[in-house]
Amino acid sequence: MNDVGAWTDERVELLKKLWSDGLSASQIAGELGNVTRNAVIGKVHRLGLSGRAKSPAASSTPRPRKAPTRAPSHPVGGNAGMTRGANALAPQYEPVVEVEAEQAPALPEDVVVPFSERVTIMDLREYMCRWPMGDPTTPEFRFCGGRSQTGMPYCSYHARIAYQPAADRRRDRKVVRA
Hints:
This protein is an all-alpha fold. It is 31% helix and 2% strand. The chain contains 6 helices and 2 strands; from the N terminus they run ααααββαα. Strand 1 and strand 2 form a beta hairpin. The protein is elongated and about 90 Å long.
């Protein structure tokens, strides 16, 4: 800090007095001159000054509430479970009811694609399944090569593996953790 706005003992005492009188940091900065609001806040924290006196006008007479200009969008009465205030945007979850849905037959771990139908990247065409098979670092690495669904990169079998519904993914994740 330059000499003009240096924290001399007199300025620190004035800061303490103004702070205890309940002035804001901006008002104190204006009184002291050549110091910013943030500098005042920093000095207050370094000095460990805490509570401030309330101005007598604010504590003696409560301010009357202004009448609403329009009806509230969320009326208070009659909605016991309604969330208001800081929690107004909190997610409201409905209880999840497990429904015994007809399960699709379990898919085997790996589809058996004859090695003769598997293709290298050089032989891969637009209508072929791009599911990788094997270790990409070995010369035996190939792609499925089966007929892919229109507009999709995989055959129907590999598409079921790649595009699982979100609920199934969550359920599988819970089973693994348990």
